[in-house]
Specification:
Number of strands: 13
Largest sheet: 5 strands, mixed
Helix content: 40-55%
């Protein structure tokens, strides 16, 4: 599999044996989707396509395709650090873009290690023991290509994946309408795209007509949108397509009714609960159990993929040190929430702050103490705001908080400005009162923050204007002697203009 590099895909395809195929995907997130569907011999892509997610991508690919070769290409010197991080995180090789075909083939496992220069190039597949049941088996003889077939994604699946894929891993994916294949009525998923598994009995569907039209492409779409609820959608498919209208997915610790048949849904290292249902009248319980096992085997793959994608998406949007949101997520969310606030006449208040004299603490007490300060400040801030407010680390010791109203429209008795200002004051006091163990008693009570508050739409009507105004207020706090939060006029206003 080649990520985000058509020229590289052409080179690899030239090196492939007759029975091998190259899959070109747009991002490493797309690569994870393919790794969950089929065995892959190797995954290769440029460092810039990692979007700063070297560790998360390596870890996720290792879990989904533990025997695949992972190769990063160091195309752009500007992304050299990403390439080095990828190799440290678990990629097998770091390749120069000018490497000759022999080196490229060798790193991808297209030639046996130690083979002579005139040895016929063959594909080294993933370990057969790692290939899922029903997948083509590959001979142990590297010269024998029998059964080898790395399947190109179906047009329906790939177009769905590509259409829903954002430019960066952290961008929330918009709702996507699946485009049916030519000749299929609009809104109907073709039979070939549904991915129904063996064991479905025609005429036994028990769900609604809409449920009967659901298929694997709907699940892919839901995962990529990141909205949650995959277990519910998948369960609707089980009920409609397996002839088990009362099927349920019980959590691991939830008891199952005594008259229900149940099978586990999970793997040896990850459990999702039990799929259970009462046997329909006149149906052999053994046949129902077999049907439940078949669908449980199908269900666990989707639940694992959904969990892995959610973890990767979270890692892509979180600051690794503090657990706060990162700058990429902050930029996207601020723009999104301002657009919504403009439409619904809601308030948005932005707090920007940093830690006073942070470099002095870092130099005096060491980087471990500096890291402790950053983690502690982020935790204190999260404890002073509402759950839905966004706390982000946007620079070295610089943080931002987006205060927004979660309701559809602002309530007449809302106290947004007062609530925000009070939260900022509580946080300022919490930082002063907190004792950071690595700073010892010498720094007790001396750590402070300086910040600025700006309100939409008075202090800025665009994300850039609002952030710039909050920065200006924070700078004013510094100029006034630090340990202060300067409030802009817009952050004090109590209602949006009509």
């Amino acid at each position: 599999m080649v990520v985000a590099d058509a020229d590289l895909a052409c080179r690899v395809e030239h090196l492939m044996p007759p029975h091998g195929r190259v899959i070109l995907v747009q991002s490493f997130l797309s690569a994870l989707g393919e790794a969950a569907r089929q065995p892959l011999a190797a995954v290769i892509g440029p460092a810039e396509a990692l979007s700063g997610m070297a560790h998360a991508a390596a870890e996720s690919l290792r879990r989904l395709a533990p025997k695949s070769r992972l190769v990063i290409v160091d195309h752009d010197p500007a992304f050299a650090e990403h390439a080095a991080a990828a190799q440290d995180a678990g990629f097998d090789a770091r390749l120069d873009p000018d490497a000759d075909d022999r080196t490229l083939a060798d790193e991808l496992g297209l030639t046996p290690r130690g083979a002579s220069a005139d040895t016929t190039t063959v594909l080294r597949p993933a370990d057969p023991a790692d290939v899922s049941e029903g997948s083509p088996r590959v001979s142990d003889d590297p010269a024998d290509l029998t059964g080898l077939d790395l399947v190109q994604p179906t047009p329906t699946y790939q177009s769905t994946l590509d259409a829903a894929m954002p430019a960066a891993l952290s961008d929330p994916v918009p709702a996507t309408t699946l485009v049916p294949t030519s000749g299929t009525p609009s809104g109907t998923i073709p039979e070939t795209a549904r991915g129904k598994i063996p064991g479905t009995t025609p005429g036994t569907h028990s769900g609604t007509d809409d449920d009967e039209q659901l298929g694997d492409t709907d699940l892919v779409d839901l995962i990529l949108r990141g909205e949650g609820g995959l277990d519910g959608l998948a369960l609707r498919m089980v009920r409609a397509q397996a002839g088990l209208p009362d099927a349920q997915l019980a959590a691991p610790e939830t008891p199952v009714p005594e008259d229900h048949l149940a099978v586990p849904v999970g793997t040896p290292d990850q459990g999702f609960g039990r799929l259970h249902a009462p046997p329909p009248p006149g149906v052999d319980p053994g046949a129902v159990t077999d049907r439940l096992r078949t669908w449980a085997d199908w269900l666990v793959r989707w639940l694992r993929l959904d969990a892995q994608f959610n973890r990767l998406r979270d890692l892509a949007m979180r600051d690794e040190l503090t657990g706060a949101w990162n700058r990429r997520y902050f930029n996207h969310f601020l723009r999104k929430i301002i657009d919504r606030a403009a439409e619904d006449r809601q308030q948005v208040t932005l707090l920007v702050f940093d830690i006073d004299d942070f470099k002095r603490y870092n130099d005096a007490y060491g980087h471990a103490a500096g890291d402790e300060i950053l983690r502690g400040v982020a935790k204190l801030m999260r404890g002073c705001v509402r759950e839905h407010d966004v706390v982000a680390r946007i620079g070295g010791d610089e943080f931002a908080v987006i205060f927004w109203d979660a309701g559809q429209r602002r309530k007449p008795d809302s106290k947004h400005p007062d609530d925000v200002i009070n939260a900022a004051k509580r946080f300022q006091r919490a930082v002063i009162d907190h004792r950071f163990p690595k700073l010892l008693d010498k720094a007790a009570g001396n750590l402070t923050i300086s910040g600025g508050l700006a309100g939409f739409p008075w202090d800025g009507r665009t994300p850039e204007e609002l952030l710039d105004f909050a920065d200006t207020m924070a700078m004013r706090s510094k100029q006034q002697g630090k340990n202060a939060i300067t409030v802009g006029p817009g952050a004090r206003a109590d209602s949006p203009p009509g």
